[in-house]
Amino acid sequence: MILGNPYGGYGSIDTTNHTAKQLSEYARTVARREKMGLKGDPNDGSFASKLKRADEFMASGEYEGPTDSIGIVLRQMDEPTPGNTVNKDFWHNGAHVSISKDSMYGTTITIGGSSNPEWVHVDTSVGTVKIDLNDMTSLMKCLDLFSPEDINAILRKIQEVKQTKEALSQIERMQDELVKNGRDKKKEGGEEGTDQSVQKKIAVINDIAGYGRCAMTVLLPIISYMGVQACPLLTSVFSSNTAFPDFFMDDYTDRMEAYIESWEKIGLQNRFDGIATGYLGSVRQIEIVIRFVKEFSREGTLVIVDPVMGDHGRLYSAYTVELCTELRKLVALANIVTPNLTEACHLADMPYKEKGWKRKELFEMADCLSDMGPSHVVITGIPQGEYIANYVYVKTEAGDPAAQMIRVHRAGEERCSTGDVFSAIVAADALNGVPFDKSVRKASGFVKQCIEKALELGTPPAEGVPYELVLHRLRRG
Description:
Layout (H helix, E strand, L loop, with lengths): L19 H17 L10 H14 L8 H8 L9 E7 L2 E8 L3 E6 L7 E6 L2 E6 L3 H7 L5 H35 L18 E9 L6 H10 L3 E10 L10 E3 L1 H13 L8 E4 L5 H14 L5 E4 L4 E2 L2 E2 L5 H11 L4 E2 L3 H8 L10 H14 L3 E9 L2 E9 L5 E9 L8 H14 L4 H22 L20
Parallel strand pairs: 3-5, 6-7, 6-9, 9-10, 10-13, 13-14
Antiparallel strand pairs: 1-2, 2-3, 4-5, 7-8, 11-12, 14-15, 15-16
Helix pairs in contact: 2-5, 6-12, 7-8, 8-9, 10-11, 12-13
C-alpha cells in the first residue's frame, strides 16, 4: 500500500517503525481531510462510505496528478508488440492482480477471482479493470492501487451493475411467476412440450461454413424453427465444409475471448437457458469453452455437448491424446452428451468395433460416460443390419439408470450434416421440456426424412441434407 495515497487509504496505518517522512505525509493527509471537511471514520470499510469519499475528494480539487501505484507498475512493464502480449502477476494486500498489455486490445487489469466469477469490466485511465462481483474482498484490498478518479469510476460501475442485476432479477421473478401460473394451461397455438410464455435462449458454440450444410448453418435455423433463440459463438470460419477438396479457413480462437468479454459487458452472464457445443479443434478452444460454461451457466442451464472427434473407429487428424483428455473435462460439465459410436469408445476408453455390439456393452459404455457428469447420454450411429440404432441412457435424480435402443431403417449413404441436424433437435427439445427418449426418436426420424429428400433430389453427400425442404414436417414439441 502507498502511504502517500492522497485518498488517505482504506485501512488503519500502523505508526510503529515508520520513518518521519511517512508520518509527516500521513499528518498532511489528515490535515487535508480536515480542511476538506470530510467527517466520520476514514477507515470505515463500507461500500457507501468509499463511494462518498471518492466523490468528496474529486470535488475538492485537491487531486494533483497520478500517484496510483498501478500506473507505476504499468510504466515498468515492457510495451506489447503485435502478436506478443506482455503479462504480469503479483499479490497486493493478499489479493491477486493480473495485468495484460496487448497491442490490439489494450491493457486489462484483473483483480482476484472466485471459483464462480461474475466479471464486470470498467474503463479507467489505466485500462480496463476486470472485477469479480463474487470476490469484492480482493477489490477492496486493491483500491489503493488506483487514483481517486479511477476509484470513483470503479465504485460507480459496481453500483450500476448491482442495480441492473436487481432489476433483471425482479423481471426474472415475474417471468417465473408467469410460467408457473401458465404451466398447466393450454397455450393458444402451442404444442405439447413447449412453453411460449418465455422464450428460451441457447448459446451455440461451433464453426460456420459458407457452402455445404454443416455446423452453424444447420444448427441455427433448426433451433430457431423450434422456438428457441439461438445465439452463435464462432470457433472458426470456413468457405465450405471440409468434405470439399479445397476450402478457406479462419481460426477464430484468438477472437473468442474478446467476443465473450463483450457478452459479459452487456450482461449476458446467467442469461442462457442452454449451452450447446460442437467441434472444438484445439486444447485452447476447449479451455475457453469450459470457462464460458462455468461463467455463463446459471441454476437450471442445460449444457449439451456433441463431442465431435471422429467416425468409423478413427479420430480426426487434429485430435490428439491431449485433446481427448481435455474434452473429457468439458463432458464432465454436460447434462446431455451425444457422441457417435467412435467418440463414445474413445471417451470411455473402450475398444472400438464396427458391429456386434451387445446391449450390456452399450450400457457399460453409456454408464461410464454418465459417471463423468452427464445424466443423459445418447450413443448414435450404431449399425444393426438394415437399421441404424441410437442407444439412449438416462440417470434419474435417485441415481437409477434407464436405457433403451431406438432404431430406424437405414436410408442411403452417409453424408455431411446429419449429426448436426440430430444435435439441433435434441438441444432445442431439451430446453422445451420434451422427454429425452421422445426427442431422440423424433431426431432419428427427421434425419431419415432429410436423407430421403437428398436421395430424391440427387444432392451430393458433401452438400449435406436439404433439411430446409422438410423442416415444416418437424414437430416443435
